[in-house]
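Q: Here's a chain of 345 amino acids. Please give me its 3D structure as tokens.
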Amino acid sequence: MMILSCLLLTEIGKITLRFYFMNLWRPFLLLAFISFFVCHSLCAEEEIINGMAAIVNNEIITFSQVRELVIAQERAASESLQGEELATKIKELRQSAVNDLINRALILQEYKKKEFTIPEYVIDDAVAKIIRDEFGGNRTVFIKTLQAQGYSLARFRQLQKDKIIVSAMRSSKVKDNYVVSPVKIRAFYNENQAAYTTPDQVKLRMIILHEGDTTGTVTNISKRGMAEEIRRKIAGGAEFDRMAQMYSEDSTQDSGGDFGWIERKTLNETLSHTAFSMKAGEVSPVIPLDNSYYILMAEDVKHASIKPLKEVQLEIERRLIEEEMLKAQEKWLKGLRDKAYIKIL
């Protein structure tokens, strides 16, 4: 009963706020303060079911809207973070969500002000595509999933409509004929060459023996001696991958010791130094390291190289055009914000 009273009084407060923003606030101002303080006292020991996160002109953004937007991200964060670090991450997520909801509210308000319309068949097509792509065309499963998540079909359709409106309104503020000069492309390429550089790489195979382990029935020979014998067999013509399959005590044994293409940072300093000093086809001597013995073979070698500008020019041009489009949208949103009444609570 206490919670129900709080909800009713909260709704009275919301109605009063709407009248306030319509400049009809005077008769309701006292009621607003009464409803706020009475609800606060009644709900002091109850969980706040909902409340105002922000006000955008005459529209209220609620805590439940914020939670709805970030619940999946918060759940993911709670699996890897804890304590103060988790609290900080959740605060960042919610602040970002509030900002996104403010932008959405401003765009939808602008849409209504301009008296634009979207045909119902556009919404129908969007919902049908979701049912087809994500539910295998099974409408019954789709409806049950909505119900399980607390959505009605009407509510889901409205959310899809809002997304379409926001996307269309954003796109309408972007030119479709942006031109990026070759000078800008060259400058971006020069400033971000690391992104277009392929580091040194070695296609590596390894045989690894560990002290204390045994391979097959061999128990009366030291692992160092065994490693040296394997190395001599390889030098005498034995196939490296076959020797790895027979003797290596590593998870890559079945694949013939294949580690694939690696970079310098993949291995520790000792093994990396050896691997990247070899030529293609070369086999290292036995390397003792941390009670284990390693034999490396460089199947192939790729030296560091930078992709020429002509190979990445179109990629850079697309990226710079996307940045210009984003700037145009942000400028438009800033204009909407500057003209609006926004209060983050």
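Q: Can you summarize the key feature?
A: The two ends are 27 Å apart (CA to CA).
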